[in-house]
Specification:
The structure is a homodimer of 253-residue chains. Chain A has 253 residues and is an alpha/beta fold. Chain A contains seven helices and 13 strands. The first copy, chain A, starts with 8 loop residues before the first strand and ends in a 13-residue tail after the last helix. The interface between A and B is medium-sized, with 33 and 33 residues.
């Protein structure tokens, strides 16, 4: 079953259903023809974040345009872990890495937040979106994370949904994240907040701690770069509270 | 206390003791002068992986040479988690990222292994060593991971220390790593093995499973790139069995 699935996997915006004919983008046409050396008749997989994963057949392939016909559904849309990542914009390399890895690790929503010590040129959203789409296509997930526009941290806190836990990685220390996740019942949704290299200022930390929904967490004895801290926190959350979490064993109650 | 520690932190090979005068490398001289714009009299921190962390004073700073005098010890050498990472060589970008992040996350030993589907130009060891040293200097750890010469996987398995658990990340599935680490008593030392993008071949998998010391582990429902899988496995091991692990609570026995 696994072996017969087409290797090429593309994200599209359009609705997917048997028999639908779709035009692909110029970039996708180039990728299929020049990079993957495909020809009409080739099979691909498609997903759009809503309708599951589908097998489709390449019916036209020009230099700048391509079309497919959708054949049958291979996987239904699955419920994915509801984890947001809030991050202070970083330099280009670390930020692109962060978007790629957060996508691969199943983050549902990427929210850049501007903090007092944020010190980075903001990337073009289109560039980050393209990185997220490519990572989603390669890692077999059925959705692309939502990339929200950058907002001041204070604005995010002002209209925060109070039932969503906000775990902020604090260089000054906090509850070890793994211990926190092991002892509390996994919530339905959560968010991880990673500050800039300079950390949070005192007022930001105070307003987080006073919010009622935020908790300072720590990630071990070493000083992690911002993107590493974000990746580590996502890995731990997915493994202990998210969709990597194994079903509870009967003995554990 | 934290505020008075010099920001600049350098790895050296020489023994460290009060009063010792040391010559720094040409690269360190350039870094101090041209990048960090330091002058004689500036304070730096030094570590060598054996003698803890020391405050030192910059006594000479030329274009290609520099010297320091070691003043007092700031931290004793600590026992660090005994985790090895075995990885099939990757393309340059992902491999350099892996060495940087594994160092930051506290891996003690980096062992490139050649497997059947390994398909990458091997990087120069000097280059990987430089990346590991820079990452160690920045993350506050007191050691630089050992970078072992590349070996065939079969040779590594042939003289493997049987008391060291070898957790291999298998794309075909295995025990979820977090669950495995949560239910078994943390061992003193372990190793994580990540294969190439093509995975392990059947003979490699069979010899791993027959070894008695290796266990197949999985890292969740998505398909992770090799370097992401390695990072995720290291994060989980450190948090649940390594030196990020919080002390056991009295209630847990």
């Amino acid at each position: 079953m696994v072996e017969t699935r087409p290797k090429i996997r593309l994200h599209v915006d359009a609705a997917l259903a048997t028999g639908t004919e779709l035009a692909l983008s110029a970039g996708q046409a180039h990728y299929l023809r020049a990079v993957m050396r495909q020809a009409p008749g080739a099979a691909v997989r498609l997903f759009n974040g809503r309708d599951g994963e589908w097998r489709a057949e390449l019916t036209r392939l020009g230099k700048r345009d391509a079309a497919v016909t959708v054949r049958e559904r291979l996987r239904p849309q699955a419920v994915e872990a509801d984890l947001w990542l809030l991050f202070a914009p970083l330099k280009r390399g670390p930020q692109e890495l962060l978007v790629q890895k957060a996508t691969e690790l199943g983050v549902a929503r990427l929210q850049p937040v501007v903090t007092r010590f944020t010190d980075a040129v903001r990337a073009k959203p289109e560039r980050l979106q393209a990185i997220a789409i490519e990572a989603a296509e390669q890692c077999e997930r059925l959705s692309v994370p939502e990339l929200a526009p950058a907002r001041p941290l204070a604005d995010c806190l002002a209209d925060w949904p109070a039932e969503r836990a906000l775990l902020f990685c604090d260089e000054r220390g906090g509850t070890p994240l793994a211990a926190l996740l092991q002892r509390s019942a996994p919530a339905d949704g959560a968010a991880i907040l990673v500050g800039p290299e300079g950390g949070f200022d005192d007022a930001e930390r105070a307003s987080l701690l006073a919010s009622g929904f935020a908790e300072a967490v720590s990630l071990g004895p070493r000083t992690l770069r911002a993107e590493t801290a974000a990746i580590a926190a996502i890995v731990l959350w997915q493994a202990l509270a998210g969709d990597d979490r194994p079903p509870p064993s009967p003995a554990a109650g």
